[in-house]
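User: Is it possible to get a 3D structure for a protein together with its bound compound? The compound here is NAP. I've pasted both below.
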Amino acid sequence: MPTASQHPHSSVGDGAEYTLAVLGFGKLASAIVSGCITTGFLKASDVAVWARSDARMAQAHALGLKLVDMNTCAHSGAALLLSIKPQFFSEIAPQLCVPANTNVISVMAGWTTEGIQARLKVNHVIRAMPNVAAQVRAAVTALSITKECPITAREFAIKLFTCVGRVEQLHESHLDAVTAISGSGIAYLCLFMESLERAAIQLGLPHEVARSLTNDVLHGVAASASAGTLDMATLRASVTSPHGTTAAALAVLNEGEFSQLITRAAQAAKNRAVELGQTHT
Ligand SMILES: NC(=O)c1ccc[n+]([C@@H]2O[C@H](COP(=O)([O-])OP(=O)(O)OC[C@H]3O[C@@H](n4cnc5c(N)ncnc54)[C@H](OP(=O)(O)O)[C@@H]3O)[C@@H](O)[C@H]2O)c1
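Assistant: Yes, that's possible. Here is the predicted structure of the complex:
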């Protein structure tokens, strides 16, 4: 079995058996690990996994990953990805014996680097806030990396999340806002698309046409946003002729204070993230 120090991507956590150990193997962790293998950043044999359920362990086995128990997982990786549900962490942290120089990377919402460091007694923690688009390698991940973090650990984390999308490095004080925008924001857009699709059906379009038109609208807007040549306000203005069809629809949305509603929704998500952070310190 390769040791971490033999592996080209791992230069932290000398003596660890695997480049990456993964604690919790739900939607997010499986997407990240799959992305790393698909892009060739990691080999399946570089990764050890523990998950609570047999079903998740079977998924990890199918990817060729090494299955280990919870305690082995805690000390077998040069890097340790914490991807269990946040509310479960306080319960298991006292049972985990993590070597102090492990490159601990947490995606757990609400757990601060300070809180994790205190529970695990490790030298440094990198906090990451990706989103579920990691499943299609189109995530954006905010990474908060402290000054104490060794450069090799920092580079590893950046490469890990680049395998599933784009990485944005930010101070930890911004992570609650990031959670509200890119973490939860996917759900806001999903709700908008579900609503548009339902409206299309009510206007008499066949179900499959309603769905494909809705998806195409989103693709079109996303392509324009990615091209970066037009900001959203300019694009919106360009399809809104005075007294035209779009203007009629936007008048209804403005009447319902659509824009303010989104601001309130994002604020509620941020408040909840702050609240969760306070319970987890
Ligand atoms: N999904 C997102 O968009 C997203 C975005 C940013 C951050 N996150 C964070 O990523 C982490 C994982 O999220 P996910 O979406 O991958 O969730 P998920 O699919 O539900 O997977 C969660 C993992 O945690 C385990 N788990 C949950 N409760 C447990 C308990 N009481 N005891 C032991 N294990 C338990 C699950 O175990 P089983 O094996 O029993 O299923 C599973 O392996 C969370 O901390 C979340 O805050 C998620």
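Residues 87 and 131 are 19 Å apart (CA to CA). The pocket of NAP is lined by residues 24-29, 51-53, 56, 83-86, 88, 107-109, 129-132, 183 (CB under 6 Å).
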